[in-house]
From TrEMBL:
<keyword id="KW-0460">Magnesium</keyword>
<protein>
    <recommendedName>
        <fullName>ATP phosphoribosyltransferase</fullName>
        <ecNumber>2.4.2.17</ecNumber>
    </recommendedName>
</protein>
<keyword id="KW-0067">ATP-binding</keyword>
<dbReference type="InterPro" id="IPR020621">
    <property type="entry name" value="ATP-PRT_HisG_long"/>
</dbReference>
<comment type="similarity">
    <text>Belongs to the ATP phosphoribosyltransferase family. Long subfamily.</text>
</comment>
<dbReference type="InterPro" id="IPR001348">
    <property type="entry name" value="ATP_PRibTrfase_HisG"/>
</dbReference>
<dbReference type="Pfam" id="PF08029">
    <property type="entry name" value="HisG_C"/>
</dbReference>
<feature type="domain" description="Histidine biosynthesis HisG C-terminal">
    <location>
        <begin position="207"/>
        <end position="278"/>
    </location>
</feature>
<comment type="function">
    <text>Catalyzes the condensation of ATP and 5-phosphoribose 1-diphosphate to form N'-(5'-phosphoribosyl)-ATP (PR-ATP). Has a crucial role in the pathway because the rate of histidine biosynthesis seems to be controlled primarily by regulation of HisG enzymatic activity.</text>
</comment>
<keyword id="KW-0547">Nucleotide-binding</keyword>
<dbReference type="GO" id="GO:0005524">
    <property type="term" value="F:ATP binding"/>
</dbReference>
<feature type="domain" description="ATP phosphoribosyltransferase catalytic">
    <location>
        <begin position="49"/>
        <end position="203"/>
    </location>
</feature>
<keyword id="KW-0963">Cytoplasm</keyword>
<dbReference type="Pfam" id="PF01634">
    <property type="entry name" value="HisG"/>
</dbReference>
<dbReference type="InterPro" id="IPR013115">
    <property type="entry name" value="HisG_C"/>
</dbReference>
<dbReference type="InterPro" id="IPR013820">
    <property type="entry name" value="ATP_PRibTrfase_cat"/>
</dbReference>
<dbReference type="InterPro" id="IPR015867">
    <property type="entry name" value="N-reg_PII/ATP_PRibTrfase_C"/>
</dbReference>
Length: 282
């Protein structure tokens, strides 16, 4: 069986479970379950702390795992990213009191508090900055007020909590993270079970990104219509009973669907509709 590590809690857990369910895999019904077997798909899922997943995968005890890119890099584990999943996105930034520093080059000799010392230490080394890094679990905003550090490095979404603490973001982002599928570095990239698992997840990503669009249009407007809905390879075009009309079907990006429908209507297309895609293989 393919042995897969899944986050057992936090912002990664729910979306990962939903994606796997959409991909046709059995998922746990209770949060207390730490291991389940999906015999039909020949997969065994292990629900682990997100921070530990890269370590388990790098050991070879588990074949692949889902974790955050930030946690993978911070762990320094012998594992690699093989598929980004598009959820749990976050940005890591430095922050400090106004006037303390303007960017990473100003951090020389300072103390930086963070929950991700591996990421921060690597970033500082990449820029040739000699600074101290202090590990703190949980919220680090109070580290500056309490004199533990002059700068913090943390996930920044809206920046509201930083502003409430009297801090400002400085410099360029340290990194951008999201949920990713990982495997042990150097593992067999042609493993058929892993490839099937990745195809299923890629199918979910495509299904979430696209909708199927159907419409009717006159033959003389077909080229303009196809230019608006080129599909992935090419749209499907079928003649209608009424001479001079055709039916067109194509996948289009979901976020652009309404605009495309307006443009199709303007060139004379009618009976325009969209349908959600639940699964696909490209």
């Amino acid at each position: 069986m393919l042995r897969i590590a899944i986050p057992n809690k936090g912002s990664l857990s729910g979306p990962a479970g939903e994606m796997l369910h959409e991909a046709g895999y059995l998922q746990r019904r209770e949060s207390k379950e730490l291991r389940i077997v999906d015999p039909e798909n020949e997969v065994e899922f292990f629900y682990l702390r997100p921070r530990d997943i890269a370590i388990y995968v790098s050991s070879g005890r588990l074949d692949i795992g889902i974790t955050g890119r930030d946690l993978l890099i911070d762990s320094a584990a012998d594992a690699e990213e093989i598929l980004p999943l598009g959820f749990a996105r976050s940005t890591f930034r430095f922050a400090t009191k106004p006037g303390t520093a303007g960017g990473v080059k100003d951090l020389k000799g300072m103390t930086i508090a963070t929950s991700y010392e591996g990421i921060v230490a690597g970033h500082l080394a990449d820029h040739g900055i000699d600074a101290s890094v202090v590990h703190l679990d949980g919220a680090v905003e109070t580290a500056i007020e309490l004199g533990v550090a002059e700068v913090i490095a943390d996930v920044v979404e809206t920046g509201t909590s930083l502003r409430n603490a009297g801090l400002e973001v400085i410099g360029e982002p340290i990194m951008k993270s999201e949920a990713v599928v990982i495997r042990r570095t150097g593992a067999d990239g042609e493993d058929p079970k892993v490839r099937q698992f990745l195809r299923r997840l890629q199918g979910v990503l495509v299904a979430r990104t696209y909708v199927m669009m159907d419409y009717d249009c006159r033959v003389e407007q077909l080229e303009k219509a196809v230019a608006l809905t080129p599909g992935l390879e090419s749209p499907t075009v079928s003649p209608l009973h009424n001479e001079g009309w055709v039916a067109v079907r194509a996948m289009v990006p979901a976020k652009e669907a309404q605009r495309i429908m307006d443009d199709l209507y303007d060139i004379g297309a009618r009976a325009i509709l969209t349908t959600a895609i639940h699964a696909c293989r490209l």
